[in-house]
Amino acid sequence: MKEKLRAHIENLIPLTDAEFLHILPHFSFEKYNKNDFLIQEGEHVTNCYLVVSGLLKLVYDDKNGKQHIISFAMEDWWESDFSAYFSQKRAKMSLQCIENTVVFSLSFENYKKLSAEFPKMKQFFLEKSNSGHIASQNRILSFLTSSAKERYDQLLKQYPLLFQRVPRTLLASYLGVSRETLSRLSSQ
Amino acid sequence: MKEKLRAHIENLIPLTDAEFLHILPHFSFEKYNKNDFLIQEGEHVTNCYLVVSGLLKLVYDDKNGKQHIISFAMEDWWESDFSAYFSQKRAKMSLQCIENTVVFSLSFENYKKLSAEFPKMKQFFLEKSNSGHIASQNRILSFLTSSAKERYDQLLKQYPLLFQRVPRTLLASYLGVSRETLSRLSSQ
DNA sequence: AATCGAATGTGACATAAATCACAATTACAA
DNA sequence: TTGTAATTGTGATTTATGTCACATTCGATT
């Protein structure tokens, strides 16, 4: 399984065997079951996660008790409540399994160590952060420029598998529409 | 004016005089007039910008010719079409002056040099990217959880000055509502 | 196979926001 | 100073989406 982590990193930054050997112990390999929480709102956020297999949802619960999906995290995605992670505060969001999920977990402490001791890893985190930033900006753009129907079509086109793996209610929440509206969009 | 750049960097990462002396020449100091473009859609994006004074808008023009404001860039903000900048492609967005604006400009080449030669600068860029990512995610969250009126109130509270500096049409476009709706929100 | 609960679809209606049209105001250049 | 264009406000109407209610389907468990 370590090979998956190595392949993931080397997809951006080539590593020597020796380097990977030093890097690996900073991560911990963990398995979770469907509905388990990796992060619960209000807790201190000490880890971020690389999804090896399975599916997570990053959720914000508003004052009215409504759930809002900020993102789904699939294989090869990094996820956490990054705002809380980087500032070492309590989570405003929850990270929960939609399916049984396998992850590599990285504590903030080890994140700092890796960044400080391995320029390549700092480079890796920088590139990941840049692409995360760009992905978020694209999502903002789709809210600004697209109707609910268009956002639905974009999502269906970009992640067709998601529609088999995720209940409609969650897809609706991710798209920012009610589940009834989503149901009507899908029959148009 | 270089002191402004130094103060901006040192706000995150302390530098020695010698370090700053080496870093400074990687930036170029530039002045633009109201309505000037720093980036035009379709051009190669070779620079990102730190705003020293003035105000920029990052704009996406959709197929119907409608403008959408992805962000405003004020003093102390970094802005570019980062998607195009990091991948060295053509701009999908434009970056234009709302007011006369003074910036430090950083070419992608120099960005790479700085990152490679100064671990502190790589750290600086990493932290900036992280906070940019988080800011974008918060904006997504406000689209998911808040009505137009609530987004209006949030913006007014967070950046009250913006309402004196920016035409309503642009504020509306940033909030993702029509200018008529914005006008009605502001009188409620 | 039968049963229960969760997920989904759909009709009726309410509400929010877009659009269109035009008036009023402001900013700016000749 | 005047005239022109850009900006803003507001009414009337249309459209998109939310909300509520209920029926249907699907899936897991016994």
Question: Secondary-structure blueprint of this entry?
Answer:
The structure is a homodimer of 188-residue chains.
Chain A: H1 2-10, H2 17-23, E1 27-32, E2 37-39, E3 47-53, E4 56-61, E5 67-73, E6 78-79, H3 82-87, E7 94-97, E8 101-107, H4 108-117, H5 119-145, H6 148-158, H7 162-165, H8 168-175, H9 179-185
Antiparallel strand pairs in A: 1-8, 2-7, 3-6, 3-8, 4-5, 4-7
Helix pairs in contact in A: 4-5, 8-9
The first copy, chain A, binds a DNA duplex (30 and 30 nucleotides) through helix 9.
Describe the model.
Chains A, B: It holds the Pfam family cNMP_binding. Chains A, B: InterPro entries: cNMP-bd_dom, cNMP-bd_dom_sf, RmlC-like_jellyroll. Chains A, B: This is CRP-like cAMP-binding protein. Chains A, B: Residues 11-71 form the Cyclic nucleotide-binding domain. Two copies of one chain form a homodimer. Chain A is of the alpha+beta class. Chain A has one domain (2-145): Jelly Rolls, CATH 2.60.120.10. The first copy, chain A, has helices spanning 2-10, 17-23, 82-87, 108-117, 119-145, 148-158, 162-165, 168-175, 179-185; strands at residues 27-32, 37-39, 47-53, 56-61, 67-73, 78-79, 94-97, 101-107. In chain A, the strands form two sheets. Chain A has a four-stranded antiparallel beta sheet with strand order 1-8-3-6. In chain A, α4 packs across α5 (119-145) and α8 (168-175) crosses α9 (179-185). The longest helix of chain A is centred in the last third of the chain and has 27 residues, at 119-145. The radius of gyration of chain A is 17 Å and the shape is globular. The first copy, chain A, starts with a helix and ends with a helix. At the A-B interface, β5, α3 and α5 of A face β5, α3 and α5 of B. The first copy, chain A, binds a DNA duplex (30 and 30 nucleotides) through α9.
